[in-house]
Amino acid sequence: MSAPAQTAEAPGAPVKLTIDGRSVEAREGMTVLQAAREAGIEIPTLCYLEELSGYGSCRLCLVEVKAGRRTRTVVSCLYPVEEGLEVQTETEKIAHHRKLILELLAARWDRVDPALLKKYGADPERFAKHTTYCILCGLCVRQCAEIEGKNVLGFIGRGTERQVVVYPELAAKFCAQCAKGREMPCLEVCPTGVITSEFAAAGLTLPDKLPVAYPVCIKDDDNLRDVAKKVGDV
Amino acid sequence: MARLTSLEDLERYRQEVLARRDPKKPCVTICSGTGCRAYKSEKVAHAFQAELEAKGLAGKVDVRRTGCHGFCERGPIVVMLPEETCYLKVKVEDVPELVAETLVGGKVVERLLYRTDAGEGVVHENDIPFYKHQTRLLFHDNLRIDPTNLDDYLAVGGYGALAKALGSMTPEQVVAEVKKSNLRGRGGAGFPAGVKWETTRNSPGDERYVLVNADEGDPGAYMDRSILEGNPHSVLEGFIIGGYAIGARTGYVYVRQEYPLAVENLIGALDDLHEAGLLGENILGTGFSFEILIYRGAGAFVSGESSALMSSIEGKVGEPRPKYIRTSVKGLFDKPSNLNNVETWANVPLIISRGAEWFAGIGTEGSKGTKVFSLVGKVNNTGLVEVPMGMSLRRIVFDIGGGIREGRAFKAVQTGGPSGGVIPESMLDLPVDFDELTKVGSMMGSGGMIVMDDNTCMPDVAKYFLEFLADESCGKCVPCREGVWQMLQILTRMVKGEGREGDVELLEDLSTTVQDASLCALGQSAPNPVLSSIHYFRDEYRAHVEEKRCPALVCKALTSYWVDPDKCIACGLCKKNCPVGAISGEKKQVHVVDQALCTKCDTCFQVCPPKTRAVTKLSGQPVPKPPEDLAVRAAKGKKG
Ligand code: SF4
Ligand code: SF4
Ligand code: FES
User: Fold this and answer.
1) DSSP letter string, B584-640
2) 8 Å CB contact of B475 and A159
């Protein structure tokens, strides 16, 4: 994984940087996002969860950093703090990118946080819709792999064809035990609610011929039912 | 062969090889690159062997299968040494004649020579216009080398640079020499190789790696493959020198699975090197040990991206990772790593043996040495072209490429592969180097060059490149996965005549975010073809959106076929050839295209006699009604 989950107790030498003009104390090994949050500066995120490894896919947490003379656009959830780093979290450019990213997300998922849309003046109707609900943030995949130590979920395909899938054989083995006595953790982390509880229903039986993988991602309601049916109660 | 255990040993062996060879002995070289193989060069080689045996010449003439000569389009290429008589498009049937005439009779077989426009045959490869204007530092030895034969490489001085580096230079001196040469990475970004070497060398840690990027993915570009296939030792020699300079003990060659011949030749070369003591423990007795491992990639475009490539070698999904710590500090297995592409490594032996100053004497202020381009598209001569940096596009396209096919007009050239940009005619005198290309909104990339004629529609071309990129995007990050896809939707709409006001601006808007916010270089450069073509051909985009007109008459939805009643001679060719029967017309009657039936397959346009040119393409205007009186008006009406 690119950046292991940073735990709060990770001791590191103190580092001084400025975020939006404020000087901020952080410790070596922290990311800019962590430093900002500790200082009470909010940066929107979507594919980030403190407990999981950094992934850097939604690009909402973009900020501008200046180290030396060079200004760069980077994702704060992965960029390590550096002594003397100057961070700007809300420049005009960054706001523009966020607006666009939100609009792009809205084309896939019609429930993007209205407050965020409003804040950045995003028009959710600007782009062609291809609703699939799953926004491929990979939180479920990382949750399953990193916290549960299983690999029931994974990615297949590339480009817009990329999908999150459930490997039914593994699901049959592990999901029930994961579900015991609590919400399924992968459902909990999914920001879009696309993982239906059916998919991981305890004790699922499997057909004779196993497909390699079931998509979690849904194209429409029919497909949703289809997937739930296939994965949940075959 | 016996293991070479010292620098003197290598030199002694080289002399032995040379002594065994008679430079005057005739040799038939047959190009066996992938291009020529596709034209059955293997069969031609067998035919030569058989024919020589039959004629009792087996021991008197050598037959050598060599690497690519670059002019693949005219393959199989056969060059007869020592005269260097060059024959193109040689077929099995030609072999007996070539043996009898050239090898035995000492005469040239005219009909297999390259022909100039004036119809004259050109005997020597280097006099063919395609080659004449090139400077082939990396490719010129291909002619003399069988890639599966280490001796061939040693005979042209191979591994002399390695011996020099190991024998008389410290690693620091090697790094300094490469720095002084100003060699820039040929993979695309053009980062100074020496600087990268130095950073890797000086990064803390006791283990470090060097890597060869042989994951060339640009459609139509195959220079790295050709170098690897044709002269693998030139790459390996540079690589071992790099390993020594950077302080690595292990090197990885990341080569795509789709390059079977390259992989085969590479594996063979590594075996030979081990046997010769040029690889492994204590190379040439100098105390330097180096091992090379081959890693076969699955051949996804994005795997050529350095962080994706390293993830892939580590056994993870070949997906890009944000690298806020440079790979020269923390790369493969989190160790300092130096990645250069095939062509970059192949330049290293030249720099070490001939010196940085010599190398820096070739090229421009900011870009030194030569660059191999893959010249394709609507030019007369296509193939791999090696020229000094700074040669103008005009010379590449017209002198080497021989101008535009069918005498059409030049429109633009796309450089840098799918994520490069287009350059219009007004900039043909641009000297081609890293910085100049970037300045005009394109890039060097790995060196793809696609020439386009006036039959090219820019929004359509942009759409073509985006289709490729949308397919190859790994899909990890939102701006690239969603942004490129949305750009593609807009362009698709446009070429279908469904463009909306503001589409061009929307494309530009999207482009800025995709460029700036994407995770890796694929997304960051994906908007280039769109932005550069909008920049130079904005009118064409406007015409599509505002007038629903395709000025190049390419976009089917916007083009109609119409028979000009004043020109039609009622020859009936169009009617006869139309696959859907959309054309009606009798003898001595003007022919008429039924717009509702026409599938715009272009057949009628192609078959209408050139002198007549009655079939006309229209765009952005209504198709005139057929005349009331269908009688043919054209003077020399002939019936069909
Ligand atoms: S299913 Fe949910 S958590 Fe998993 S990738 Fe899709 S949106 Fe993210
Ligand atoms: S820019 Fe494209 S290819 Fe690169 S990480 Fe993002 S989605 Fe993958
Ligand atoms: S939260 Fe940083 S990229 Fe998604």
Assistant:
1) E--TTB--EE-TTT----SHHHHHS-TTT--EEEEESSPPPPPPSS-B--STT----
2) yes
Contact A216, A154 (CB under 8 A): no
Nearest-neighbour CA in chain B from A72: distance (Å): 9
Q: Which two tokens stand for residue A218?
A: 């849904």
Average pLDDT on B184-206 reads 92
Decide: A32 and A173 in contact? Cβ < 8 Å.
no
The backbone torsions φ and ψ at residue B397, rounded to the nearest 5 degrees and listed phi first, read -75, -40
Q: Is A223 on the interface with B (CB under 8 A)?
A: no
User: Any chain A CB within 8 A of the CB of B471?
Assistant: yes
Angle, nearest 10°, between helix axes B223-230 and B232-246? 90
Q: What is the model's pTM?
A: 0.87
Other C-beta atoms lying within 10 Å of the C-beta of residue B110: 11
CB contacts, 8 Å: B470 with chain A: 159-160
Question: Which has the closest alpha carbon to B556: B494, B511, B507, B505?
Answer: B494
Ligand 1 pocket test, pick from A58, A112, A133, A137 with the greatest ligand atom count within 8 Å of Cβ, gives A137
Q: Which of residues 300-329 of B touch A (CB under 8 A)?
A: 300, 302, 317, 321-322, 324-325
Closest by alpha carbon to A101, among A44, A147, A41? A44
A121 contact B CB<8A: no
The answer to whether B193 touches B354, Cβ cutoff 8 Å, is no
Considering every ligand atom, which ligand is closest to the CA of A43? Answer: 3
Quick check: B324 and A74 CB within 8 A?
A: yes
Judge whether B320 and B520 are in contact, CB under 8 Å.
yes
CB proximity under 8 Å: B 563-602 to A: none
The DSSP secondary-structure symbol of B403 reads S
| d(CA A102, nearest CA chain B) in Å | 9
- pLDDT for residue A196: 58
B182: left (phi over 0), alpha (psi -120 to 50) or beta: left
Residue-averaged pLDDT of chain B: 91
CA dist., res. B217 & res. B446, Å (int): 9
Rounded alpha-carbon distances, angstroms, from residue A76 to A44, A57, A59, B575: 10, 12, 9, 65
The torsion angle over the Cα atoms of residues B62, B64, B70 and B76, rounded to 10 degrees, is 80
What's the pLDDT tens digit per position in B429-458? 999 999 999 999 899 988 899 999 999 999
CA B182/CA B180 separation, integer angstroms: 5
- C-alpha of residue B142 to centroid of ligand 1, in Å: 52
Q: What angle do CA B38, B40, B42 make, to 5 degrees?
A: 115
pLDDT given for residue B434 in this prediction: 94
Q: Are the CB atoms for B156 and B145 separated by under 8 Å?
A: yes
Alpha-carbon distance of B10 to B20, in angstroms, equals 15
| A72 shares contact with chain B (CB less than 8 Å) | no
Closest CA to B11 of B122, B119, B211, B154: B154
Question: How does DSSP classify residue A5?
Answer: P
Amino acid at the residue B635: A
> Of A73, A93, A120, which is closest to residue B477 (Cα–Cα)?
A73
Question: Rounded CA gap, B149 and B226, in Å?
Answer: 16
A142 touches chain B (CB under 8 A): no
Residue A232 contacts residue A214 (beta carbons within 8 Å): no
Residue whose entry in the numeric block shows the structure tokens 């690119």 = A2
Residues from chain B contacting residue A104 (CB–CB below 8 Å): 478-479, 482-483, 486
User: What ipTM goes with this model?
Assistant: 0.87
Touching check for A158 and chain B: CB below 8 Å?
yes
CA-wise closest residue to B590 among B569, B620, B610, B611: B569
